[in-house]
Amino acid sequence: MGRFLEYSGVWNLCDLIDGRRNNYWPLPTRGVFGGGFTGSDTNVVDYVTIQTAGNATDFGDLTAARSALAACSDATRGVFGGGTTGSYTNVLDYVTIQTAGNATYFGDLTAARRGLAACSA
Question: What b/e sequence results for 39-71 when a residue is b if at least 16 CB atoms lie within 10 Å of its CB, and e otherwise?
């Protein structure tokens, strides 16, 4: 087991690069996309397998159709937050990235918002 798998907490960028070079930190295998606007708000969640070329595949659905939402993740869980369903929403949903299926209610933002930005390490 690599040393990064044995510790939790905050790492700096040099530690992450070193971990990737020495195979302590695995490459992600899946990219997950959800929500959006296709003439109306959508609840569709799709995924791609990053290491192979090809079209997106259906993953499942968000708990509600919405656009202008934000998302972030770690290697296990992806979280979708906020957006608009005609009015702003504060809903947070999550998916388990390696297991396709519908999103599950995660909680609420402190206020209803749209056009958010998110990032994760």
Answer: eebbbbbbbbeeeeeeeeeebbbbbbbbbbbbb
Nearest-CA neighbor of 88 among 115, 107, 61? 115
3-state secondary structure of 5: helix
pLDDT tens readout for residues 12-57: 667 767 776 776 656 668 889 999 999 999 999 999 988 888 999 9
* Local structure of 14: helix, strand or coil: helix
Instruction: Quote the distance between the C-alpha of residue 54 and its chain's center.
Output: 20
Helix (H/G/I), strand (E/B), else coil: 18: helix
- Closest to 108 (Cα-Cα) out of 63, 67, 52: 63
β-strand 57-61 against 44-49: which pairing, if any?
A: antiparallel
What's the whole-model pTM score? 0.76
